[in-house]
Amino acid sequence: MTGGKGVIHSSHWGAFRAQVKDGRVVGVTPFEKDEAPSPLITSMPEALYDESRIRQPMIRKGWLEEGPGGRRHLRGAEAFVPVSWDKALDLAAAELKRVRDSHGNEAIFGGSYGWSSAGRFHHARTQLHRFLNGMGGFTRQVQNYSYAAAITLLPHIVGSLESVQGPLSSWDGIAKYTKLMVCFGGVPLKNAQIDSGGVGSHITQPWLERCKQAGVEFVNISPLRDDAADFLQAEWLAVRPNSDTALMLALAHTLVAENLHDQAFLDRYTVGFNEFLPYLLGKTDGQPKDADWAAGLCGIPAETIRGLARRMAGTRTMIATAWSLQRADHGEQPYWMTVTLAAMLGQIGLPGGGYGFGYGCEAAMGAPRKKLPTPNMLAGRGSVDNFIPVARIADMLLEPGATYDYDGEKRTYPDIRIVYWCGGNPFHHHQDLNRLVCAFRQPDTVIVNEPWWTATARHADIVFPATTTLERNDLGSSPRDRFVMAMHKAVEPVGEARHDHDIFAGMAERLGFREAFTEGRSEMEWVRHLYEVWQQRIAEHDVTVPSFEAFWEAGHVEIPAPEKPFTLFEGFRADPDAQKLDTPSGKIEIFSRTIAGFGYDDCPGHPVWREPKEWLGSEAVRDYSLHLMSNQPRTRLHGQLDNGTVSRASKIQGREPMWLHPEDAAARGLKDGDVARVFNGRGALLAGVIVSDVVMKGVVQLPTGAWFDPLEPEHPGSLEKHGNPNVLTRDRGTSRLAQGPVAHSCLVEVELWRDELPEVTAFRQPAVA
Ligand SMILES: Nc1nc2c(c(=O)[nH]1)N[C@H]1C(S)=C(S)[C@@H](COP(=O)(O)OP(=O)(O)OC[C@H]3O[C@@H](n4cnc5c(=O)[nH]c(N)nc54)[C@H](O)[C@@H]3O)O[C@H]1N2
Ligand SMILES: Nc1nc2c(c(=O)[nH]1)N[C@H]1C(S)=C(S)[C@@H](COP(=O)(O)OP(=O)(O)OC[C@H]3O[C@@H](n4cnc5c(=O)[nH]c(N)nc54)[C@H](O)[C@@H]3O)O[C@H]1N2
Ligand SMILES: [Mo]
Question: Does 113 qualify as catalytic in the annotation?
């Protein structure tokens, strides 16, 4: 719908209408049915036309002159040569064929982790997978950066991923039945701006307001006060980062010591409490995990811990644990302990009780919505069965042939010759970026499709300019939001940009499988096809939606709300024999024989407290005395929209803002508006200073997403000028079980930057030869 209201479209940060004038997007307004729109949509016009757009195909000079592997040590530091589409497609297709024929499909790494954009047809990563499967397959990535440890752990102990990816027990049930909501990592509204696949309506804030009105009490257990909105008047327990497992153990210990735990629930619905109990009581290691013990670790007074345990046992309690807690060293443990604690309270499966991972982490977590399939593009299947856990990318590139543990397996890293990224930004998402720079210099060839000159595009050999979502027709939907949105093309492609689908179709043609890749459909035929396949699938669930024409004209369909609140594990609670969990015992596993059988010292058979390598309790604090919280940015989605209005307005002297406590600032002579150097043994960066008591003492908050901008790209480890925290974070697995990323376990030091400020150049065009 163009009309007076603008072109209907959608994004991970919300649905909107784009105002178009003379073929340019000049503004955006929120979708009429959005209850609490995010300001992030207003960043889109600026980003769309930003100087950082890639306008034509480009090839790194050394690669062009010397062929695959040419001057690979200069990847990320060398000039690019503009080439024609035909030449770029010819070269890329020939290189893919060379590697496949001489090293096998396994040597092509196409994991390409990343969020892409909201549209389901033009979903960049899926398009790449479909293309690579069409040529025989590729090495994949499993899990995600969001909750990798949970993805590997939860099937062992509760038999499914529902409690982390949803549907969670819905907000309507919480408002009605919950009395106390205990939030580890808060319920951060900054994160509820986003949902993968799009947000028709932002429901978290309105539901939190209703919960508050209904009298639900909130406890925000977090290093940051503003992880809970002011209007919640939450009690703030400032917890030392990464110590939640100790705190949860102490809550559990108090329940047992005061006989407040629900033994009948434990007997009927769980296994292994008796293996866990001796550890809790200190019979196995001489250390009772009581409140006095935990107070010394987590910084919360013992009496407060005991009081909280009593309150939790005395009323209908929902334990909400954020995804952030498991993006840390031993990230499996706070999750296993959340489940254990909830089981001990005996309220799992009761309305308003139990636990859930991720309230507030994405916009539609907890949204009341019927459980239905979502429209999706099909990636097909290839013949390669090799994969890596998502965050082991640098290990894989640096150590081909090395073995590692993962979820009970001994696995071997493949020897990768081509890395292909489309729809993700590893130089945003990965840890220890200086190490990643070295890793990216290993393969023969790196190919990237991107709309913008992100650091990942800069570290490629062949760069294809991709269109952004506003330049094409699509449909968008998250599996939890109640809207499926039509996404009408607003403007013509910028520069010579092409849709990812067309880029891959061009290569498929050169490799002889264009027809199989496109199935002969045009863009609009695909959009219609995906809608109609979805329409048929949900008809099996007795849900009827309008014809494609009616949907496209109206701009959206709304999925009807369920009649009653959804409660996680309701069926299991009602009849645990008929509705067994998909675990070996059919019950919740507080002790897992399977995990114990793996023999991992860093993840034994029941939840345990294990000290993180880097936290405020470790010896490393002598050198680096502050815990870095590189959490999600309120001003953008990861690296996306860092070149847009909202993010740019937040920068301090061009640098990403970093929050630190007044006492920590005073001790270092820092004040608001300064630029500081933040550093540890892995790297150093410049960030702007905000002095604020929203962060607890000892913690600095520097959100992710400032585009990686090294002072000397040819020398990995040089000063990062812009404030990308991943030059500081540690690149290790959570444990041998899940091998998840540990971004939230990181110590740093901060000092005033007195020298001249180097210019931020991340949004500029790279050097062109
Ligand atoms: N330190 C630290 N690091 C973290 C985290 C943390 O908490 N702390 N969080 C982690 C988490 S949870 C996640 S999910 C990751 C996110 O990491 P990513 O998902 O990799 O981050 P994005 O910036 O969303 O990257 C998506 C890229 O796709 C591009 N793109 C968008 N649309 C299209 C398109 O149509 N075609 C093509 N070809 N490209 C497109 C965008 O320009 C962008 O560069 O980061 C992780 N990294
Ligand atoms: N605006 C915006 N929203 C986003 C995203 C974005 O980039 N921008 N990214 C989206 C994505 S991909 C994801 S996966 C989710 C992530 O959702 P989360 O993983 O929950 O996100 P974070 O912001 O990393 O963490 C939330 C809060 O947890 C607290 N926290 C961190 N470590 C600890 C700890 O050890 N203990 C306790 N108790 N608290 C801790 C921090 O104070 C932090 O503000 O967010 C999504 N939402
Ligand atoms: Mo994520």
Answer: yes
Print burial letters for 518-532: b (CB count within 10 Å at least 16), e (below 16). beeeebeebbbbbbe
- Asked if the model's pLDDT at residue 514 lies above 50, the reply is yes
Nearest atom in ligand 1 to the alpha carbon of residue 726 is: 1
CATH classification code of 619-752:
2.40.40.20
- The runs of H, that is alpha helices, within 178-290 are 204-213, 244-257, 263-269, 273-281
pTM of this prediction exceeds 0.90:
yes
CA-CA distance, 116 to 256, in Å (whole number)?
47
Pocket flag, ligand 1, residue 531 (CB < 6 Å): no
Q: Hey, CA dihedral for 313, 226, 184, 156, is it positive or negative? A: positive
Instruction: For 160-370+574-598, give the CATH class.
Output: alpha beta
Q: Are 305 and 247 in contact (CB under 8 A)?
A: yes
Question: Domain 58-145+374-484+494-544 adopts which CATH fold?
Answer: Rossmann fold (3.40.50)
pLDDT at residue 1 is higher than 80: no
Q: Is ligand 1 within 6 A of the CB of residue 145?
A: yes
- Which residue, chain included where needed, has tokens 């199989």? 516
What is the residue-averaged pLDDT of the chain? 97
Distance in angstroms (rounded) separating the CA atoms of residues 288 and 423:
48
pLDDT digits (tens, 9 = 90+) for 228-263: 999 999 999 999 999 999 999 999 999 999 999 999
Residue spans of the domains in the chain: they are 58-145+374-484+494-544, 160-370+574-598, 619-752
Tell me: pLDDT of 2 over 60: no
Q: How far apart are CA 356 and CA 340, in angstroms?
A: 12
pLDDT of residue 206: 98
